[in-house]
Design brief:
This protein is an all-alpha fold and 65 residues long. The chain has helices at 2-17, 19-40, 44-50.
């Protein structure tokens, strides 16, 4: 496990040396997350398929009991 943590630490150190690339990547994912709802449309059945489990009233709390 310590080898894994050393690799993660090394990779994060290398990534943070180029802050511009990190900011560009984060901005890309923010834009994708913002445009995704516009791309799938307002149909309720489609929204139910992509919604997280907790946000779906038809299976949210009932499935946990």
């Amino acid at each position: 496990m310590s080898a894994f943590l050393a690799i993660v630490k090394r990779d994060l150190t290398l990534a943070l040396r180029r802050k511009n690339e990190v900011i560009t990547s984060v901005f890309f994912f923010v834009v994708v997350a913002a445009l995704f709802p516009l791309g799938i449309g307002p149909e309720m059945n489609t929204l139910r398929l992509v919604a997280p489990r907790e946000a779906r009233p038809d299976i949210g709390l009932k499935a946990q009991k």
